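Slack export, channel: ligand-projects

TW: morning all. Re-posting the request from yesterday since it got buried. We need the structure predicted with the small molecule present, not the apo form. The ligand is glutathione; the SMILES is in the block with the sequence. No rush, but it would help planning for next week.
GE: picking it up
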Amino acid sequence: MQQSISLYQFPYSHNCAKVKIALYEKGLEFAMPPLPGGSTRSPEFLALNPLGKTPVLVDGAFVIGESEVIVEYLEDRYPQPPLLPTTAEGRARSRWFSRYHDLYLGPQLSTLFFALHDGRAGTPAFEPEIDKLIEQVAILEQAIDPQPYLLGEQFTLADAPYAVSYHYIVMLSAAHKRPLTDKDMPKLARWFAAASQRPSVQRVLDACKAALAGG
Ligand SMILES: N[C@@H](CCC(=O)N[C@@H](CS)C(=O)NCC(=O)O)C(=O)O
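GE: finished. pasting the full token output, ligand included:
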């Protein structure tokens, strides 16, 4: 039985995107109210998450932050449809992709995003940062063999973080004057072609693009 769920989030955030994709994939209804107190620094928001970061999920009386913890909670609390494989190996592999995203690729995209935001995209100071992104994408390209999703025929939590991040790889590499195209990451591009057909991914990606365009 579903309780009332709210998600505090930013529409352009790759961390928030993975949670929304998991919620949509599970068919859960949820609200996306404005941040309490109007910002991540407000006392009201800090009472929900002392780190002052989105996403934060409120499920009934239960409040939890950190995107990966939230999606694992959703998997435990609302197991159908499953977003993790059943085998120990499959679950570990899914978590590998999640951690690779959250510890390496995601933070790098954030660094490049804020440089773009500050008008410093493509400047010499950010050459090492774009080099690092290109290296991370190459590692990912080597690590995957989409069939059509990262772990095979089932869309899993492994796929969820990469949907919006793929858009950022393309957008930020171009903004930093080192464009990565389908030719540079053919397996990732093939994965994205399949993943972006899913209504959950389309919905989140459309909202992200609208937010980036100021819509
Ligand atoms: N490790 C955290 C990262 C969360 C994070 O960095 N959230 C950003 C949006 S992408 C945020 O809310 N920043 C607002 C702030 O720092 O004030 C997670 O996966 O949830």
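GE: first-pass observations. Residues 5-77 form a domain with the Glutaredoxin fold (CATH 3.40.30.10). Residues 26 and 81 are 6 Å apart (CA to CA).
TW: perfect, thank you
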